[in-house]
């Protein structure tokens, strides 16, 4: 792990040209439009990036109970973008990211695509990722819970498949800035499948995605959900943050969703 003054020392010891090059490297992969969005919506200012990153890294000392495996610039930047460059909020997310993984070390020991259960979950479309973005530039994730084969793999395998996919996608700075939109189509999801979901497992999923991952999650749309999913969602509401509740919509008919997701409409027409 890099020392707490790594980035700061580089900035002080280098020339102005070196600093400019480092800033450019941190925003590499962003279009000019995305840079503008990052500045306006996320409070990202290129000239302050190293100070922002260092401020988060300096807080690591306050959590000696956590092993922060990575502290390089590009990694810490993900947490700042996910929390609109609030140093404290970004660090809290950074800490929870590793705290969650330490707390569930037994599960994460098997967090690899070589895991047969994870492989099957990925093959069954957990998650589905559309090629096109929505009109906000967000990457669209699509879930068909009915595809879950409860006899072959667990909800933990599904969660690991999703996290592995997110880890891969969040390397893209465009996705860091624009975030994700989510559609969950509950068509044909059986009561038998729902019965395999315990409150503890559902809370595990919520904590892993809502509280412990450096991404911006925009609209979350449930469509075609049966009554028992509505009932389960009511039970889960206390575990959802207010922003998550506000961004989660239940639609009995997908037309309400299609107005916002042109890419989803194109996907449906092609299948």
From TrEMBL:
InterPro entries per record: CRAL-TRIO_dom, CRAL-TRIO_dom_sf, CRAL/TRIO_N_dom, CRAL/TRIO_N_dom_sf
Pfam families named among the record's database cross-references: CRAL_TRIO
CDD domains: SEC14 (cd00170)
Residues covered by the CRAL-TRIO domain: 118-247
Signal peptide segment: none
CC annotations in GO: membrane
GO molecular function: phosphatidylinositol bisphosphate binding
SMART domains xref list: CRAL_TRIO_N, SEC14
Protein name as catalogued: Clavesin-2-like isoform X1
Source lineage: Eukaryota, Metazoa, Chordata, Cephalochordata, Leptocardii
């Amino acid at each position: 792990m890099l020392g707490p003054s790594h980035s700061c020392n580089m900035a002080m010891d280098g020339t102005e040209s070196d600093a400019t090059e480092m800033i450019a490297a941190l925003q590499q992969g962003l279009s000019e439009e995305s840079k503008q969005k990052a500045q306006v919506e996320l409070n990202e200012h290129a000239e302050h990036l190293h100070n922002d990153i260092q401020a988060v890294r300096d807080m690591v000392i306050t959590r000696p109970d956590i092993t922060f495996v990575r502290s390089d610039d590009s990694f810490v930047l993900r947490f700042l973008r996910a929390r609109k460059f609030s140093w404290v909020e970004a660090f809290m997310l950074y800490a929870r990211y590793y705290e969650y993984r330490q707390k569930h070390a037994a599960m994460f020991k098997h967090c690899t695509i070589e895991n047969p259960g994870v492989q099957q979950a990925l093959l069954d479309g957990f998650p589905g990722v559309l090629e096109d973005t929505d009109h906000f530039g967000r990457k669209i994730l699509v879930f068909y819970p009915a595809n879950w084969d409860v006899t072959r793999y667990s909800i933990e395998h599904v969660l690991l498949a999703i996290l592995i996919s997110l880890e891969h996608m969040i390397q893209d700075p465009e996705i860091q800035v624009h975030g994700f939109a989510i559609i969950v189509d509950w068509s044909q999801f059986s009561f038998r499948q729902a019965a395999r979901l315990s409150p503890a497992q559902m809370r595990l999923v919520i904590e892993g995605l809502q509280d412990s991952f450096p991404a911006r999650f925009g609209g979350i749309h449930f469509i075609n959900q049966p009554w028992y999913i509505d009932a389960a969602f009511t039970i889960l509401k206390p575990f959802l943050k207010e922003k998550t509740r506000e961004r989660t919509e239940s639609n009995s008919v997908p037309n309400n969703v299609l107005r916002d997701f042109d890419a989803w409409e194109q996907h449906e027409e092609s299948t």
